[in-house]
Q: What sequence folds into this?
């Protein structure tokens, strides 16, 4: 049995197809015509862009715009003057071939990424390697990756799987994925989740341990890979796999209808989205609204800031499609793990605690005002709610609200219509905001608890650091007590309280959160039917009793053990 990082859940059983990365045969000699070699490199860059455009369109068609935007980083790298000029400089100064110069520059950049403390940036080294591999294949006249040529069902075993390789996989043929390196926050992991392909990454020795044709079981929820299992183990996993398939069919019955507890209490199940391309899944899975529209993807899929008109058209499309259902649109949350080449942000020791989200928006008022104008213009086309990210004090909230008031007045002076009422809310993801949520509740219309950041800030655990990921604990009593404080303070202030972090979709905790009084849950669209079934299986009074008991417990282990048999 091999252990790795759970990257995309589920169980897969099949024969292994092992694809080892071929060694590049690069000529290290000198060239006679340096300028011709420079031009050959520039031509390869343009060819790579064309290939990526085609791949992005294919991904957008099959998975939606948000997943296709993962390739925006690749376009930015191909347009990065620092990387391109470094390769050209090596060709000109050393008189070497383009592929040899590229190899050296790419190695330097990936080493820089790998040396960083932040796991997210270490995994960006995979993007650099992916771009370099594509350029090398073009320069050397080789065919594109063999991953696109897989035509028989298999468990794919490989050293590393680049995002562009994952996007080319035939979903019908790839039963599961096992890699030597990589992690759960990589672009490849995100794409595997979208394709619903079980994946375990970072096993270290899979390509050395598994041979072509070996029977392999992937238990991706546990991060385990079983090689040549016994008949008894195989039979056990076939039963588990069949059970999961039946459960999925059962969940599909809950795509439509209200979200009611067993005794009739109503809660709201909404969806998280990143672009209009996600709307069809929202409708297909019976979401009752949009609880989080991450607008930063509008900024990441381009080479310059989106105009007011660009943004207005996107917001208008989402609001019209939702036909009056609530749509919570979060203002720009750039910074931390999301950077833009055309919007320079200095490197920081702790980027998640740095110049990001509302801090950046209030500093760059021009950028913020453009977004608010676009949102207010779109507000007449549906049920818009505006939400500010990473608010930590009242001064920030009031400054952000003032921008909204100023832009509304400006639009009115231009005779541009806006909705009479637009709810203003804030994310609760900073512990300081949770502690003084009673003060915030007097000044906003709603809270949405962003548990991903709230948890890591509360218990001081970087959720992207695989070395301490086991310490990232949603069931920590301090986290649950903070959530309860926020809900209670919101209700005392007469406002509704939602949750848009990953915790909102966890079936173990949904009844507990309802028992605490949470009004709205927002999650990925495919999670909604399962959540609706969980909600309908327990009565509210029982949920309330469970919450009272849990809030008296002193450890995450005690809480999880109790919840495992509570409903």
A:
């Amino acid at each position: 049995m091999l252990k790795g990082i759970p990257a995309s859940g589920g169980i897969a059983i099949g024969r292994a197809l092992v694809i080892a990365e071929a060694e590049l045969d690069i000529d290290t000699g000198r060239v006679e015509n340096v300028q011709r070699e420079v031009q050959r490199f520039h031509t390869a860059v343009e060819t790579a862009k064309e290939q990526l455009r085609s791949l992005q369109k294919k991904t957008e068609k099959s998975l939606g715009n948000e997943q296709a935007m993962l390739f925006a980083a690749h376009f930015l790298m191909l347009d990065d003057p620092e990387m391109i000029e470094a390769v050209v400089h090596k060709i000109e100064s050393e008189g070497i071939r383009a592929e040899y110069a590229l190899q050296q520059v790419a190695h330097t950049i990936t080493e820089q990424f790998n040396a960083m403390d932040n796991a997210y940036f270490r995994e960006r080294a995979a993007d650099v390697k992916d771009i370099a591999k594509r350029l090398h294949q073009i320069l050397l006249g080789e065919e594109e990756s063999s991953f696109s040529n897989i035509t028989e069902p298999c468990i794919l075993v490989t050293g590393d799987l680049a995002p562009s390789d994952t996007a080319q996989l035939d979903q019908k043929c790839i039963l599961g994925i096992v890699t030597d390196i990589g992690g759960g926050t990589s672009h490849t992991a995100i794409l595997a989740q979208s394709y619903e392909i079980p994946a375990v990454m970072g096993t270290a020795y899979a390509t050395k341990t598994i041979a072509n044709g070996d029977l392999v079981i992937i238990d991706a929820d546990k991060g385990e890979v079983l090689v040549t299992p016994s008949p008894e183990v195989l039979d056990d996993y076939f039963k588990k796999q069949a059970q999961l398939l039946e459960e999925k069919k059962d969940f599909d019955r809950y795509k439509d209808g209200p979200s009611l507890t067993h005794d009739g209490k109503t809660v709201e199940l909404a969806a998280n989205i990143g672009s209009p391309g996600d709307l069809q899944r929202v409708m297909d899975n019976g979401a009752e609204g949009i609880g989080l529209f991450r607008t930063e993807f509008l900024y990441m899929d381009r080479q310059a800031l989106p105009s007011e008109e660009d943004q207005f058209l996107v917001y208008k499309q989402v609001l019209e499609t939702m036909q009056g259902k609530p749509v919570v649109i979060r203002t720009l949350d750039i910074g931390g793990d999301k950077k833009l080449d055309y919007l320079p942000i200095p490197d920081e020791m702790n980027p998640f605690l740095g110049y990001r989200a509302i801090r950046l928006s209030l500093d760059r008022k021009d950028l913020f005002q453009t977004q608010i104008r676009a949102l207010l213009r779109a507000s007449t086309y549906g049920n818009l709610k505006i939400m500010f990210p990473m608010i930590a004090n009242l001064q920030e909230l009031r400054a952000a609200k003032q921008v909204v008031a100023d832009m509304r007045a400006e639009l009115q002076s231009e005779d541009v219509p806006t909705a009479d009422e637009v709810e203003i809310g804030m994310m609760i993801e900073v512990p300081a905001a949770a502690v003084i949520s009673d003060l915030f509740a007097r000044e906003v219309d709603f809270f949405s608890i962003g548990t991903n950041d709230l948890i890591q800030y509360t218990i001081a655990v970087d959720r992207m650091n695989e070395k301490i990921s086991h310490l990232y604990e949603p069931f920590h009593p301090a986290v649950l007590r903070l959530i309860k404080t926020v809900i209670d303070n919101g209700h005392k202030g007469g406002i509704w309280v939602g949750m848009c972090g990953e915790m909102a979709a966890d079936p173990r905790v949904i009844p507990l959160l309802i028992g605490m009084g949470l009004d709205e849950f927002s999650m990925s669209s495919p999670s909604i039917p399962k959540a609706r079934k969980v909600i309908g299986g327990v009565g509210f009074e029982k949920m309330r009793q469970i919450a009272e008991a849990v809030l008296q417990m002193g450890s995450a282990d005690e809480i999880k053990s109790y919840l495992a048999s509570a409903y």
Q: What stands out?
A: The CA atoms of residues 230 and 236 lie 10 Å apart.
